[in-house]
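## tool: complex_structure
## caller: assistant
## args:
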Amino acid sequence: MRYLKFSSFILFITFFTACDKKTGSEKVDFDREAFLVNIADNVIQPSIENFAFNAEGITVATNSFNANLSIESLNVLRSELKEAWLSYQHLAFVHVGPVSSVNLRDRVNIFPTDAALIEENIASQNYVLGSAANVAAKGFPALDYLLFGTGNTEEEVLSYYADPDLGENRLQYLTDLVTDIQTTSNLISEGWPDYRSTFVGNTGTDVGSGTSLLVNEYNFQFDIRIKNAKIGFPSGGNPRTGGVLSPENVEAYFSGWSGELAEEAVKSSIAVFKGEHFDASEDGLGLDDYLDALDARDRNDELLSRAIINQSTAALEEMEKIEAPYSEIASAEGSQLVNVYNALQAVIPLIKVDMTSALSVSITFQDNDGD
Amino acid sequence: MVTNWLPTYRFNQAKHIAPLATFRVAFGVMMLASIIRFWSNGWIAKQYIEPEFYFPYYGFEWIQSWGNPGMYILFAIMGIAAIGIALGAFYRFSATLFFLSFTYVELIDKTNYLNHYYFVSIIAFLLILVPANKAYSIDAWRRKKQDFYVPAWSIHVIILQLSLVYFFAGLAKLQPDWLLEALPLKIWLPSRADTPIIGSLLDYKLTAFIFSWFGAFYDLTIPFFLLWKRTRVIAYLTVIAFHFMTAALFQIGMFPFIMVVSTLIFFSEDFHKKLWAKLIPQRKEVLPNSVGFANPVVLKYFFILYFSLQVLLPFRYILYPGNLFWTEQGYRFSWRVMLMEKVGYSQFSVNIPEKKKSFEVFPQQYLTPVQEKMMNTQPDMVLQFAHFLRDKYQTEFDAEVKVFVESYATINGKGSRPFINPEVNLASIKRGYQHKNWVLPYNQ
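## result:
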């Protein structure tokens, strides 16, 4: 009997190798380590460096602004803020390792910002920026308020800081916010080299592996921080149920950069997905290549990677049609933002359902027998 | 009469207790190890204390978490009961206590449903009925009387139950996805390619086919190969190899080890007697009772009913229209193990017409990652969560609340598609065993 069993087992093998040679030699041909190395060295590392460079830029500009309150120094500071805010959009997609442990997203980009709380902090001079109570009173959105929301013209903004009573406090608060961003950036830059080997070394898909973290954070950023926070909340959320319009909830409400920031975020999503080098010089191994190696397909039997890129690009095109700041158009029912929302929503099942399924990433260490 | 259907089987024939005693000890020890592992991983808190909301089974809503420190006390009781089973101390009481405490915990939240927990529950139930403590036990020692003979049924019900588990698991694999496309193993195995030694093989599509076919063959035939004396040893070596392989590849916890020790019960009386002789040298044994035992007839009918139910339960899905994997109506308690890769996504929206309010709810605000993952693919859990939202916001706004869900799911990597009808107000749908017509058809 044991021979029967053994020979039937052999029979299976011969059956498959003999009558289906193609299936037999077919293999998932993908170098997971090279993929993680590319993401680590050509996507994450330069994003961190770029963010650090821009953080430095705001710090320097803030110092000059402090030393010399002028329209010129204000405009330099404003443009540095914009650069840094744009550079953040890329790093938000690769929220792994030190980027995640400093909790970059919550630390620098919670919007809408709480102007009343900011003013309260300034007046009392009694605040701890690191405390949970102050997440909505710091980071880029708070700087947005301080540099744009405190006056209608540049002169008015300058006079806000030249105020004989509170001017000093206001400058101090501004400086504290920038220092906090600089500190965050330093922590990330310093932490990355230590984390890199962990990221690259774990080629599995368990919890904590590079791939699993990357995919989960990618989805969170796309679904919650872009689709919902940047588009959904201000424009009334899910259009089918007719949400409440709240244009004041857009990102960068005061400067009106909402559109540029959101577009940058979607561009980053595509670049990270493709594993494109940060300077866009080369398209390295990315999630798209991994999905192709697995021959992952969408419902229409198209390559899943194609479907994701096409749909993300379609969303980007909808965004590019919008010229005005989102706060202006979000006040109209059924605005163009609803088209953007719908286009982004069409990406969600592809990345949250099809991609995670194809990559088989774990979300927990707990037992699971697959049902 | 039953005896007429099975003329050669003597229900009450006297059999040596050794196989049953080994099973009792092995099961008790495995359960204790499981509890310790569960506790030390911090899962008691994660699964039964921290969640804000649980998914009770229909009709068992009265079963609730005991909180902190209640859940720890419950697990401690379970642990002591497991020791009682292993040692054969206050055996019936211990087995009953274990069955009740274990089943209670499992009923708190269906998120944690696993086939092997269901298996543990029913084995614990069977253990209450069998006299596994008549020898090699504290109870026998206390009574100062070892009784080495038990009725045949007490060993055979466990063998039959184990065989059913394997056989149905095998039967469930006889379907096109598993056999012709090697799904879902074709998805899972490449993701395990970092596994030591065999890892590089897992990238080959052929490997998924071999595993799939071998898995189906194994499940369908292993009870028979274990039953037959001539193939038993090689079959058992296969059991070890098979389960250790699955343990290395998948996150399935203690199950492989539980099966490895449980299947020892297929071995002969002599094998187990020798095993026990090494552990506890015996002086004299009570002679077998050639007449057999006089167990109440009611027990016989009980087992006929019990096993009929066990055989029918996995087929109850026939009563529902639609794709079983998609609707999951009749999926649980049917030994469909490792059979599909299913992932879903859901975003709920709450609508309060009176207050002209509507907003989106992401499940992660209220659910743990595991709860969310499980809910996203199981319609009955989606409905339960919708009801949770309805009740919560009804109280908060003191007005009628509508709940809708936009959801997608994919089975075996075949492309995501809309899952639950987004136009249906889930707040108004009743729970129950009726067909869930608000789940969109798979091939819409």
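## assistant note: Residues 341-428 of chain B form one domain. The beta strands of chain B are 14-16, 149-151, 342-352, 357-361, 402-411, 417-418. Handing back to user.
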